Amino acid sequence: MPVDFNGTWNLVSNDNFEGYMVALGIDFATRKIAKMLKPQKVIKQDGDSFHIHTTSTFRDYVLQFKIGQEFEEDNKGLDNRKCKSLVTWENDKLVCVQTGEKKNRGWTHWLEGDDLHLELRCENQVCRQVFKRA
Ligand code: VL7
């Protein structure tokens, strides 16, 4: 049985989001707003199909993918760069590699106790986010 990420999740901690945004080239004014946000994630998982909706008072982001199937990601409303993204299982972790202009870009989701973890990577920066069930 794969891990079940289904649910509504609220951000409770956000370590080095600033460094991650700088690595993505997000401008100062946008970073100032973005780091105040407490985004919510709604994850719908059906077998190997995922729908992840990240919402906030400032911007929303929708990501849909199937495990093992590379897709074009446009990162619209984030850094707006396009990349090729591929999500795979690594044991019980959901690992995404985002191939494009930025080196070492990607993210990993996993569950730890009742918490949802998300590590966001870009170049030499790592942002660590923790979410709790709404
Ligand atoms: C998405 C933000 C910083 C621009 C706005 C911040 C709005 C709310 O990719 C992500 O999640 C994956 C895994 O769950 C699924 O898409 C994280 C947040 C990264 C990057 C760029 C700042 C402006 C945040 C949408």
Structure description:
This protein is mostly beta strands and 134 residues long. It has one domain: Calycin beta-barrel core domain (Lipocalin, Beta Barrel). Helices cover 10% and strands 54% of the residues. The protein contains 2 helices and 10 strands. The protein has helices spanning 17-23, 28-34, and strands at 7-15, 40-46, 49-55, 61-66, 71-73, 83-90, 93-100, 106-112, 115-122, 125-133. Strands 4-3-2-1-10-9-8-7-6-5 form a 10-stranded antiparallel sheet. A hairpin with a 2-residue loop joins β9 (115-122) and β10. The two termini are 24 Å apart. The model has no long low-confidence stretch (mean pLDDT 97). It binds 1,3-dihydroxypropan-2-yl (9Z,12Z)-octadeca-9,12-dienoate. 1,3-dihydroxypropan-2-yl (9Z,12Z)-octadeca-9,12-dienoate binds at residues 21, 24, 26, 30, 34, 37, 39, 41, 52, 54, 56, 58-61, 63, 78-79, 107, 118, 120.
Enter the CATH topology name: Lipocalin
* Major sheet details: 10 strands, antiparallel
Annotated CATH homologous superfamily: Calycin beta-barrel core domain
> How many domain regions?
1
- Derived structural class: mainly beta
Number of helices: 2
Distance between the termini: 24 Å
* Estimated share of beta-strand residues: over 45%
Helix-strand pattern? EHHEEEEEEEEE
Give the distinct bound molecules.
Answer: 1,3-dihydroxypropan-2-yl (9Z,12Z)-octadeca-9,12-dienoate
Q: Order of strands in the sheet with the most strands?
A: 4-3-2-1-10-9-8-7-6-5
CATH architecture: Beta Barrel
